[in-house]
Structures are given as C-alpha cells and as structure tokens.
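hi! just following up on the protien thing from before. the input was this:
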Amino acid sequence: MKLKASAAAIGLMACGVLSAQTIEVQLGEKVGTIELNVNDAARSLLEQMPLKLKFEDFGSAERIAYLPQKLKLGSSPTSCAPSEGDLTYYIPWGNLAVFVKGWRPSNDLVPLGKLSDQALEIIKSSSNRTIEIKAVRSK
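and the predicted 3d structure came back as:
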C-alpha cells in the first residue's frame, strides 16, 4: 500500500500538482492565499517575491499580469488544462495567467498553483489596482 501511495505522489509531483509553498495576495485589507505547485517554474516565481502586479482581463477566461523577469522552467510541465482558480505561466509572453473559468488544454502553459476562493475574488475584482504578492513565512 505504501508503495502505491508513493508512486502516486511521485506521479503528481511530476505533473506539478503537489503543493510546496503558500504565497499571499493582498489588495487593500483583503488577503487570500495561493498554494504553489512543486516545480521549477513555481520556485522561480518565489525567487521574484515580493511582487506588485496589475492584472488585466484577457478574453473571458483569464486575468493576466506581466512579471519583471521570465521564469526559469527547468523540468516543469509545459502544458495543462486549466480550471477556475488555477495560476499558470504563459511561456511565449512571460506572463502570469489566473483562470476565472475553465479552459481547454493548452501548450506553453505552465501550471504554477491554485488560488483560494479569497485570492480568486481579489484577482477578479482588482480592476487596474496593484496587487501585492509575497511568500508566507514558515512557522
């Protein structure tokens, strides 16, 4: 049984699904969290913290923001089928994309993490205001 559980965990890690680190998004007094996946791109995002970003609407499914530097991808997965609340990185443009509804499987889209309901609401309602993003310190 332990062997099957370990094999499943390794498979999930290879897809960037297991959470490794929590980050916070803040807009005014509102705070939400994002659980980052275990992959090289998510670690590269952490290296850029803290960040101040403005998210803009892109189509009907996502809000995007541009990072100061492109992420180092390493062995991160480079495609995914995003669902509502997913944080991803679009390789060609070097931007973060938060999905406000599900989308089709897409190449060049790196899964980075999952937003809490509060974080998703902050991103959705941010309009053109700056959102602060920072790593949460381990206790």
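The radius of gyration is 15 Å.
Residues 2-14 form the longest helix (13 residues).
cheers
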